[in-house]
Specification:
About 15% of the residues lie in helices and about 45% in strands. It is an alpha+beta fold. The N terminus and C terminus are likely disordered.
């Protein structure tokens, strides 16, 4: 039996993990096909959890217990959204989160994000506190468990956005006694849109044992053939970033737009690549009625914690042909208190 505290803990882990994610959206043609598609997505999420359980012993079964939550809210565009969240343990050192958004008013439009995080070692049965150190520490003890690999796939209809991050390790940028300021950095990262590479980062000249972060080579689509090409090299992890010139100017993005609403929790950025393609992202913090939360007048630059509202991210891309990927994440009372 799983007690109430364990259930609250699992709900907490859903939000802590899902709050770092990137999210999804789009519409389908036939209402009957959409219902079948949604049933299939839910079935896959549940059967995946059952399969994980059937392959494990009793102790592992407890660790693989799933947590599911469902809630209906309004998104920033005024559409009613049914949010479903599933958490499972596909391996002893992994956590998987699946989020489904259904919009009944848009022919049951379905948006999905599937996030799998791999840790540096097998996780304990009790996940309490894991989320607070999985990405590093801000002046606390060095985390015992932290992320080393991430696979995030956001989809809506035929459109997809995939992020892979591999080779994660803890880089320490300050230390005082037992207190440590460190964060997870990755040696390889790749973002693709509909299977097409858009941004790649490769870390070079690093040394984990000596705590040397090295440099990062950044690749973008080339102007002439859209092939990912080394465009820039960057030094620095926190604070001052140093750019080491341009390797190939024909691979440099032509425009980067960034704006923040002065009085609301809305951030928008758009990157236009040298080949003319682009990606965009709108981030919101909204209430259950879809209203964007206001910023603190005394601290307008501060972004409220995710448990203070619902997180919504809308992704756009030239390859989406006018559609978007739009996901809403809703925290619960247990997650608000537990965090």
């Amino acid at each position: 039996m799983i007690n109430r505290e364990d259930e609250m803990m699992k709900k907490l882990m859903i939000t802590v993990v899902v709050g770092l994610l990137v999210f999804t959206a789009q519409s389908f043609a036939s209402r009957d096909e959409l219902k079948d598609e949604l049933k299939e997505l839910r079935r896959e999420a549940r059967e995946g959890i059952k399969a994980e359980r059937s392959q494990a012993n009793g102790a592992r079964e407890l660790r693989a217990e799933d947590s599911e939550g469902g809630r209906t809210v309004i998104d920033v565009r005024g559409n009613r959204v049914r949010v479903e969240k599933y958490l499972s343990r596909p391996a002893d050192n992994q956590i998987r989160v699946v989020v489904l958004n259904t919009r009944p008013g848009l022919a049951d439009r379905v948006d999905q994000v599937n996030w799998t995080g791999t840790f540096n070692q097998d996780l304990p049965l009790d996940l309490r506190g894991i989320g607070r150190g999985m990405w590093g520490s801000r002046g606390g003890p060095r985390p015992e468990y932290y992320i080393t690999n991430v696979l995030r796939v956001a989809t809506s209809g035929d459109n997809s956005l995939t992020v892979t991050r591999d080779g994660g390790w803890l880089y320490t940028f300050a230390k005082l006694g037992e207190r440590e300021w460190c964060l997870v950095i990755f040696n390889n990262e790749l973002l693709t849109i509909n299977g097409i590479g858009k941004i790649e980062r490769e870390r070079i000249n690093y040394d984990i044992d000596l705590n040397l972060p090295g440099m990062v080579k950044i690749y973008y689509p080339h102007r002439d053939d859209s092939v990912l090409t080394h465009a820039l090299t960057r030094i620095g992890v926190t604070g001052q970033i140093i750019w080491l010139g341009t390797e190939d100017a024909l691979a440099l993005p032509t425009k980067h737009e960034w704006e923040r609403e002065p009085n609301e929790h809305h951030l928008r950025d758009k990157l236009v690549f040298a080949d003319g393609t682009w990606i965009s992202r709108d981030r919101y913090l909204i209430d259950d009625e879809g209203h964007v939360l206001e910023r603190d007048a005394d601290d307008p630059g501060h972004w409220l914690p995710f448990w203070r509202g619902n997180r919504e991210i809308i992704h756009g891309a030239s390859e989406f042909d006018g559609e978007t990927i739009d996901i809403v994440i809703t925290p619960g009372p247990a997650e608000e208190v537990g965090y």
